[in-house]
Amino acid sequence: MININIVASDSDKVAKVVVIDDSDRVLMLKRSSYMEKFVGEWDLPGGHIRIGEDFETGTKREVEEETGLSVGELSFITQIENLSFYFCKYPEKPIKLSHEHTSFRFFSKKDLDADKKFEKVALKALEMKND
Prior knowledge:
This protein is α+β, with helices and mostly antiparallel strands and about 130 residues long. It has helices at about 55-65, 115-130, and strands at about 15-20, 25-30, 40-45, 45-50, 75-80, 85-90, 100-105.
């Protein structure tokens, strides 16, 4: 596990998490009309890290706010501009969506599109998990 106890210096820091179940499927959330950008698109759980909040705390808080899941150990995947990506094991609990998303689905590797940024990162996470 990489140390992610970095303190955010501004509210532009965003963390997303690839949550992987025991069947190597990835949790994706469909964005609601409450969200101004990318309405109806598939998203990874996560969001903005608060000013002064360390990445691990903020990342886990965002996942819990959006899904109701308390996730465990986070493993770093990559960083793209202000987006930091991590993966973790699905804790096998019921998902309770917030108002930010309308539905969820577990995508298998064959369902993921490498031309879409979040799905490309999810494919990378699956490779890293199985290494």
